[in-house]
From TrEMBL:
Stored SUPFAM superfamilies: Integrin alpha N-terminal domain, TPR-like
Keyword set includes Plastid: no
PANTHER family: ATP_GTP-BINDING PROTEIN, SENSOR KINASE-RELATED
InterPro entries, alphabetized: FG-GAP, Integrin_alpha_N, TPR-like_helical_dom_sf, TPR_rpt
Ranges where the record places region Disordered: 1201-1235
UniProt keyword annotations, A-Z: Signal, TPR repeat
Biased segments, Basic and acidic residues type: 1213-1224
Transmembrane segments: none
Source organism per UniProt: Gimesia chilikensis
TPR repeat positions: 129-162
Keyword field contains Transmembrane: no
Protein name: FG-GAP repeat protein
Length: 1235
């Protein structure tokens, strides 16, 4: 929207007002608007703006029933204006779902309303192709294919160069099986491809047609696919073992040789491999236009010029104390190049980090207010930037305060200790390249030093560096590096040991001459991964690197929406993030030719963002200084981000405020910060820790402090720490960089909504008059959200990382209520990576024992609940319950082991006379026998040092089985029963460990026995292990011992905890009877999320089924989940018919109780047999952000590049009738910002 005219430009404002009123008069039907030919009153404008704003907000949040009457009222108020009718048409189109249309009466009413609305739209905007596209979609929803095709042909008459409309026409024509229609569909698809040759989705789609038709263009399309898919080639080879370049090379040769069957097969293989890749999905969205792309977001400028606006209330002014020079005890080196403020020595107080022409100096403040050098190092080169960032994840226990000195600890909300932290390393950048200085501490002396870490084989090759930034590019839990030089942009993966590897070859980077001078990390398109916005003050160009995951990026430009003077966001020379209209979509305040511009955006869906307005917000000329032109922060603590911009010998203060026109944030000029000398650079930080953001400048080789004198508004600082807390033990999780840099923090309190991207050790929010921060949501860089409710103001809070588990949960009816039992499908992960190019195997079946004392009958049925409560998709093909009756003195166990089919083969193991080991010690000789003697929920932990979540030191458990029964047996046949659980790494941690030479990869348990020489010999390199929550595995040791010393040693570096370990000797098979419990009903429904029950010791988390949260927990996954309702046909047999569960879903199962009760003296236990898979949405899981491609039992691997999904009529019907539910993207992304 255009900004409101200011009093400084009365003549301009008057002209605009006259022209605006005339324009508005001409655009409205005579007498149809609320004002006729006169001005619009403020009250009338407020009403129209409310109808428009709320109507669009509800529309974008998928609350169509609430949007419809508001937009209909807007059409009544403005019957000649396109905005009301086009947006109402979209709203009514989106209500034409099969579920609503099946109801004859209400469906007919919806259809009539939609057709009437679009007909009026076409009358008002007959030259707009959007009118006809929307008409076509309405006709198609109503089953009128011929009318839909006719409307699309009309749309093409208006926009013949639109690849999206040509593609939409091809998809419609393809539905008609007549040969002539198929030919038309192919021709339309070809035209779409010709119009958008850089679209990989169109290329692989058209490749199928070209190959079948033996077109002479086939070779060119293969070549195009090779070029466009180049960033994917390496990761596809790692994930699927398929070499894209070799397939294309063979295809080109096959064309030459006339082997068209091979050409067609390879074209199909390429599509199967690429279709689910994020790059292809992104390109697909370019031609599969979301209906929200047609939303008209605002009135024209003439509307605003015609409104009689009252005087605008100015926000609370910011008052700064007179600038004073910071006093140093030591001389500061000349020629200050850069300045950072951070807690370098982890004492809770900010330090000053200065880069000069000769040195790097770190200063700490003394009690007298002066600043003294803590440490320093020679710069040794021409550097212009300094960055303070934790590169090595060296989380350490901090020394306590000196005796007698009482140190005030910050108040905390979450259970995380502020005495553990990671120190900040320093990175210099400039003409001399990049120089890394490690922050090392001498624990004995309590001093710090900067140690140069050479990068001989990587970063040292760079020179003439314009800027750098740090972001978790590959989402493996550490901070990687982005460097811009005069020769282009390069991406460097942090190996975890202060060394870097160039990964630029995996991406489509911007043109080499871009010369980016600023880089902003942000999830720009709200699809969880971090993108990078690049701007250049040299070439006046901007755009963003779209994150395609797995360390791959693609250069994109912003939507080419122009301002009144023709400027676009693609010309921004620098920018800062904001959400000026509070719509849950990032906006940009940018610099363009020394003017400040505002680019507004809308989020259309996951991965879909559209710039919809660009306008100038200040006409004041900006200064041209050596460093950053813009800084953002809430200077007056009113809950709206303000902007500080350089301007001559001072700084402009632009205050954000709720503007009268739209109740959205605008910017008004506050009193400028003036200086007698040119300001070389400036920073915004709370230097004196009083809750108000101060300004620190460098001018005339002096560091100046401008103290913000504050006001009565409240504030809160949020500090993130990525720690795993287990019992009383805290350790680095390894899932996210320690300070959560790059994470999204959103705050909602009253009318205040403010999102920010974490950039350092703490993130500051103003709260105005709010006395609590009602809701704070942290979305960590690995996509895991955590909510903080009702945090008190005027304090600093620390929030630990919420850890994500894995696999669906099982609850059982215990006679009184449903209680948590265990987790499922642990042996069946799909897309999980153990390391680069190493995909975890998947076994699709499991047999789990359910204790008969816990599962009780309920009205003639056994009732189970299977829930999906985590960020994943669960696929169930079969759920089968079998009752096992056996003598009461016998315990039975299935083999609940993770491992290959031969190792984990199902068998019922009986145990009559259990033996407890004589001794149990770990590798340090610590006795753990008391913890493993009984099933008592007291778990033995056999390691002391832990490196990452799921990864510990190599540790052993030595069990002495030399009981009397063993010694009396001639050749004892021993079975070992181990009950325990595993806290696993995840795929992101696995990949980070794989590239870090300083740390080992996880090593599953192996089993050794004594040899004849007094040593140990490994007899089972892979013993198998219990997966996830507490389970029991069986290890058969018959004929495994090499001597008469019956000890075993289990060795691993994974995070296992053991509840009970026992064994049997020479047990004979027990008698038992099995009864299949027929499945009576299976119903899928939304349930929500059970409350975790945190184990106080070393046990696993459990969940309280009765204590439920309906609050949305996880980012949306793409694709079709199973619709709610009856799903019994899908889980009765293992036949690839699936129930697909998403976060918050529950499958309720009722099994009939067998007719025959257990014999006298017998008892009943159960075996639950599941067939299925689980896909974790971790950003490193292969294809982890989408439901598709669906798994099937015959697949040899996942993904399955050369195999075909069994698309029979039944499975095809299941996709159309069952797997039709989509997760609500708006519900998550706009959870705090929505109306």
């Amino acid at each position: 929207m255009s900004t409101r005219p200011t009093h400084n430009y009365l003549i301009v404002a008057a002209v605009i007002l006259f022209i605006g009123i005339l324009a508005l008069f001409l655009t409205l039907q005579p007498g149809g608007g609320p004002v006729g030919s006169g001005p619009i009153s403020y009250d009338e404008a407020q009403q129209l703006l409310r109808l428009k704003n709320e109507g669009i907000a509800y529309l974008e949040n998928e609350r169509y029933a609430e949007s419809d009457p508001l937009l209909e009222r807007l059409t009544e108020e403005l019957p000649g204006d396109v905005i009301g009718f086009q947006n109402l048409t979209i709203c009514r189109l989106l209500q034409l779902t099969p579920e609503k249309l099946v109801d004859h009466q209400s469906g007919k009413q919806l259809a009539d309303q939609a057709q009437a609305t679009v007909a009026q739209l076409i009358k008002i905007a007959p030259e707009s192709s959007a009118s006809y596209v929307l008409s076509a979609r309405i006709q198609l929803a109503l089953g009128n294919e011929s009318k839909a095709e006719e409307a699309l042909q009309q749309a093409l008459e208006k926009s013949p160069e639109s690849a999206a409309i040509w593609f939409e026409l091809s998809q419609l024509q393809k539905q008609n099986v007549k040969p002539e229609q198929q030919a038309l569909a192919n021709a339309s698809l070809k035209r779409a491809w010709e119009l958008q040759p850089d679209n990989l989705f169109l290329a692989i789609d058209y490749l199928q047609v070209a190959a079948v038709e033996k077109s002479e263009q086939t070779k060119a399309v293969f070549e195009q696919v090779k070029q466009l898919a180049a960033p994917l080639a390496e990761s596809v080879k790692d994930h699927t073992r398929l070499d894209l370049n070799e397939v294309i090379k063979a295809s080109l040769q096959a064309i030459t040789d006339g082997k068209w069957n091979l050409v067609t097969r390879n074209a199909r293989v390429l599509r199967n491999v690429l279709i689910a890749e994020d790059l292809v999905k992104s390109d697909r969205r370019r031609v599969e236009q979301n209906p929200l792309e047609f939303v008209i977001p605002d009135f024209p400028p003439a509307f605003y010029a015609a409104v009689e606006w009252p005087a605008q209330e100015k926000p609370l002014s910011v008052k700064f104390a007179e600038a004073r020079a910071i006093e140093f005890n030591e001389e500061v080196s000349a020629d200050i190049r850069d300045l950072k403020i951070a807690d370098f020595d982890l004492d809770g107080q900010p330090d000053l980090i200065l880069l000069t022409a000769e040195r790097v100096q770190v200063f700490q403040q003394e009690k007298d207010g002066r600043w003294s050098v803590m440490t320093s190092a020679a710069a040794e080169g021409d550097f212009r930037e300094i960055h303070a960032v934790d590169l090595d994840g060296d989380v350490q226990q901090l020394a306590p305060s000196p005796a007698g000195e009482k140190k005030e600890e910050p108040q905390t909300i979450a259970a995380i200790s502020p005495v553990r932290d990671a120190d900040l390393d320093l990175v210099l950048a400039g003409k001399a390249g990049i120089r890394i200085l490690e922050n090392q501490v001498d624990d004995k002396q309590g001093t710090r030093k900067l140690v140069h870490r050479p990068q001989a084989d990587s970063l040292d090759a760079l020179s003439d560096v314009l800027t750098v930034n740090f972001s978790d590019l590959d989402h493996d839990g550490d901070l990687d590096l982005v460097a811009s030089t005069g020769k282009g942009v390069s991406l460097w993966s942090n190996r975890g040991n202060l060394s870097f590897q160039d990964i630029s070859a995996n991406s489509q980077l911007p043109p080499a001459d871009l010369a980016a001078t600023s880089i902003v990390r942000v999830d720009w398109d709200r699809d969880v991964d971090l993108d990078l916005i690049l701007c250049s003050r040299t070439t006046r160009q901007a755009g963003y690197l779209e994150n395609l995951r797995h360390g791959r990026f693609r250069w994109r430009t912003f939507s080419k929406v122009e301002s009144e003077n023709g400027s676009t966001a693609n010309q921004f020379e620098e920018c800062v993030l904001t959400d000026y209209d509070r719509n849950g979509s990032w906006d940009l305040v940018g610099v363009q030719r020394q003017a400040l511009m505002l680019a507004g955006t809308r989020l259309l869906g996951t991965g879909e963002v559209q710039v919809d307005s660009v306008r100038q917000i200040q006409a004041t000329k900006l200064a041209d200084i050596q460093g950053t032109l813009l800084q953002a922060g809430d200077l007056n603590n009113d809950g709206v981000l303000d902007v500080l911009a350089s301007g001559g010998n001072g700084l402009q203060v632009l205050l954000g405020t709720a503007e009268h026109r739209t109740e959205q944030t605008a910017y008004v000029t506050d009193e400028a910060i003036t200086s007698a000398n040119p300001i070389q650079l400036f920073r915004v930080a709370d230097l004196n820790q009083d809750g108000s953001l101060d300004v620190i400048t460098v001018e005339a080789e002096k560091v100046m402090f401008l103290q913000n004198q504050g006001n009565d508004n409240h504030w809160i600082d949020v500090s993130l720490r990525a720690e795993q807390v287990k019992g009383e033990v805290k350790s680095a999780s390894g899932r996210v960089n320690h300070y959560g840099v790059g994470s999204l923090v959103e705050l909602r309190s009253g009318a205040i909504y403010q999102p920010q991207i974490v950039a350092g050790q703490s993130t500051h929010f103003g709260l105005g008059k709010q006395t609590v921060a009602e809701a704070i949501r942290v979305l960590w860089t690995n996509g895991i959200p955590v909510n903080i409710i009702n945090a008190k103001t005027d304090q600093r809070i620390y929030e630990k990382q919420t850890l994500m588990g894995s696999c669906p949960y099982l609850y059982i009816w215990d006679g009184e209520q449903f209680t948590f039992y265990t987790d499922l499908l642990w042996a069946a992960p799909i897309g999980l990576q153990f390391g680069k190019g190493i995909v975890a195997p998947s076994r699709d079946w499991e047999f789990l024992k359910i204790d008969g004392d816990r599962l009780q009958e309920k009205e003639g049925y056994y009732e189970l609940r299977i829930t999906e409560e985590l960020w994943e998709a669960g696929y169930f093909d079969l759920v089968e319950l079998t009752a096992v009756d056996h003598p009461a003195e016998v315990e039975i166990f299935s083999n609940e082991k993770v491992g290959p089919p031969d190792l984990a083969a199902f068998k019922i193991h009986a145990a009559r006379e259990t033996q407890t080991p004589v001794g149990a010690v770990n590798h340090r000789g610590r006795d753990v026998l008391p913890e493993i003697r009984e099933v008592d929920d007291v778990y033995a932990k056999t390691f002391d040092e832990k490196y990452r979540q799921g990864l510990a030191e190599v540790h052993t458990l030595e069990l002495d089985l030399n009981t009397a029964a063993v010694k009396q047996a001639k050749t004892p046949r021993i079975k070992l029963f181990l009950t325990g659980w595993l806290y696993p790494t995840d795929t992101g941690i696995n990949l980070a460990l794989d590239e870090n030479p300083a740390l080992p990869s996880p090593r599953p348990p192996s089993l050794a026995v004594p040899d004849k020489n007094g040593g140990w010999k490994t007899i089972q390199p892979f013993m198998g292990f219990p997966g996830g929550k507490t389970k029991t595995i069986v290890v058969d040791l018959a004929d495994q011992f090499l001597t008469d010393d019956y000890r075993v040693r289990i060795e691993t570096n994974m995070e296992f905890y053991w509840d009970q370990i026992f064994f049997t000797v020479d047990e004979s098979p027990a008698e038992f009877m099995t009864h299949l419990c027929p499945l009576e009903t299976a119903d899928l429904q939304h349930r929500g999320f059970s409350t975790p029950i945190i184990h106080p010791g070393n046990g696993p988390e459990r969940y309280d089924y009765q204590n439920l949260s309906q609050q949305i927990q996880w980012p949306p996954m793409q694709g079709g989940f199973t619709r709610y309702g009856d799903v019994k046909p899908l889980v009765e047999k293992a036949d690839n018919r699936l129930v697909i569960l998403g976060a918050g879903d529950e499958m309720r199962l009722r099994f009939r109780v067998p007719a025959d009760p257990p014999r006298p003296g017998w008892k009943r236990d159960f075996i639950l047999h599941n067939v299925g898979w689980d896909k974790d949405a971790n950003l490193h899981t292969i294809l982890g952000q989408a439901v598709e491609p669906l798994p099937f039992r015959e697949m040899r691997s996942y993904p399955y590049p050369t195999e075909e999904y069994p698309e029979g009529p039944v499975l095809q019907s299941d996709r159309e009738q069952y797997h039709t539910r989509r997760q609500d993207s708006a519900a998550f992304w706009k959870h705090l910002s929505r109306p």
